[in-house]
Amino acid sequence: MKSPSVAVQQVAQPGPWLKLLQRLAFWIPLVISIAVAWTPNPAGLVASMAGSVAHIAAAAYLAFALSLAHYRHGPWPAVAAWMMVWGVTIELVQLFVDGRGAQLADLTADALGIAIGCTGYALWQRLTHRARDQADKPSSSPA
After folding, report:
1. Taking the model in full, what pTM does it have?
2. Percentage helix, strand, coil, to 5, in the chain?
3. Would you say 132 and 12 are in contact if contact means Cβ atoms under 8 Å apart?
């Protein structure tokens, strides 16, 4: 079994397979979210709190995954900008999809989710760097 410090180092410095998995963990859900958003809704479906929660959750996950896959050392403004392009594009295309429409509430939920995802990634990065730094320190126990 690997020690926690080895596991932290592997996540902080991923090999080619882990990089591929991290990128797939962003791109596959991104494509799925676009496909779902551009699917016509059944008639009479109204915006609900569940829809806002879904927007927040999707945007938070995708912002975190984008940071991990492509912007490991920043900059978070680039992640926020790309994710807002995602949100605006979805809303604009929904203007032309039956049973859908653009909603400012959806963009607001996306922005909140993006902020949560970027903040979560920054916290995760701090924790992994702190754990890696502690693992790299020589032991000061007497011999």
Report:
1. 0.75
2. 75, 0, 25
3. yes
